[in-house]
Fold this protein.
Amino acid sequence: MAHNPDRPAVSSENYWRRNLTYVGILLVIWFGISYGAGILFVEPLNRIRLPGTGFPLGFWFAQQGSIYVFVVLIFVYVYLMNRLDREFGVSEEDE
Amino acid sequence: MTVTAWTFVLVGLSFALYIGVAVWSRAHSTSEFYVAGTGVSPLANGMATAADWMSAASFISMAGIISFSGYDGSVYLMGWTGGYVLLALLLAPYLRKFGAYTVPDFVGDRYYSQTARIVAVVCAIFVSFTYVSGQMRGVGIVFSRFLQVDINTGIVIGMGIVFFYAVLGGMKGITYTQVAQYCVLIFAYLVPAIFLSILITGNPIPQLGFGGVDQETGTFLLDRLNGLNAELGFTAYTSGVKSTIDVFFITAALMVGTAGLPHVIIRFYTVPRVKDARISVGWALVFIALLYTAAPAVAVFARANLLNTVSEQPYAEMPEWFSTWEDTGLITFDDRNGDGIIQYVGPEAQTATGVPIENELTIDRDIMVLANPEIANLPNWVIGLVAAGGLAAALSTAAGLLLVISAAVSHDLLKRAFKPDITERGELIAARVAAGFAVVVAGALGIRNFGFVAEVVAFAFGLAAASFFPAIIMGIFSKRMNREGAILGMITGITFTAGYIVYFKFINPAANTAENWWFGVSPEGIGAVGMLLNFAVAITVARFTPAPPPEIGRMVERIRVPKGAGEAHEISG
């Protein structure tokens, strides 16, 4: 088993800090797409059309795009955290 | 076969399926009753979560509201999906690691306080009953329209079914019934959506179709709708009437509420491992997104079809569905100018010479999804399918909520607070009695009518956002947060939010206009303000009161890591 029970203090602090960094970056994107593109900047974006469709861009973000981005964000987080768990030897894989 | 015959067959078959699944998967222990023995696969849990959480509001009500409010309906679309990002990133993995049965379990242990536990129990029961009352109206609408029974009889039948599988099966029964209900409801939602999309735009994918070209006129469907809305004196479909700040706060309240709703959170206690909890949230959102990205398309198709069918048409020539819905009182026509033609217009409508036109048609927004297949002349079996889907959505959510209420009574109050020496057998009996009692109360609430389904449900989200979300977040992300802060925060948040809603909705509904709202935030969005208050009070109080005992700090460290450091502490501590 890769994980060493004698060194947790420093490594678990690093683990937590890396986790918070991931969470922070993903939440910035989360906020930018939904509250940014879908609400605060919806009117300027509505002047642009999603090419080839009848969707004003801001409206599309509010009713379609934001939902797709939410799904992607969760799967990205799952991928990053599974990698991080293995790196720090805290994965439940070998239980 | 007639619509009624098809509805009886499809609803009957789906109910038989749920009961069969419930008998097959009934619970034998408290662990199975509360968390399905933590043996649910992440994919199945994702599907169950999707059904658990997509209620009558999502299935019956939401597309109708979007259809009438256009862009403003986006608050529901973003609000009810964005919360899953918060769940995956901030809550689900840690609560799974903590490994409790209920949300008050976590609050009570993390804040080392029976008072905190009981405050959480009261919040959980309050939120869940608010939510359940919204579901029951949905059940009533479906029954009264499609099975030609009295609304109250319909509610009693629905509650009987829920009683059977929630009381018998507990979480284990509910989980697998919800998987079946998800399959029924998503099929029932997408079939008419695809039909309509092909009919109107020629594109079989509704998510793309509503951005496509209307086959009749050759213009983009959304452009055509904006044009029609303008002509009839409504706001343009792709822009809204709600203020930006209100849209912002409603979306926030719904998102945070999603992440704070006890019946959603406990679903992530049922999977085997922390990593399963993370991916399970992802699957849940995939399954939800299937419906949620189709809903705005359904809304656009419904709007176009409705305007085509009724606007400036003779009342005498209205199709059969029109008069059936009139019988339920959910469509009313009042021929004010006596010309026998339906003037369905918005507040700004006027004739070419500037004379205002009076609106003569009122349509309950909750009926749009149910009426849609009939308006578009789809086959009878599709209409029956939609009825079965609406019931699946309402019943699956009601069952999840009833389980929260039952666990709050039998586990949090009896086992953890007042009678710790209760046997497992005794607790299981208490849980079933509590579930039975909750079914009866929920039925009684459903027989009273509390307004639009989605609005009532939105209040439940506001209450959850203002009470649980901050307490749980700070319990995980701050080691310094103590019981005094958490308790006062929760009490402030839920009292403020409930007070604001009760004032504007029940005490003084006449004042419920934008000028009277604080900072322009409507009662639907006030939960986000309540949440901020909760955080502010909790952080301030915690600064001036003693830090939590050291073992709480170690507990928090344990929660934060899937394995390893946590076990080391457990061995040494």
About this structure: Chain B is about 70% helix and 0% strand.
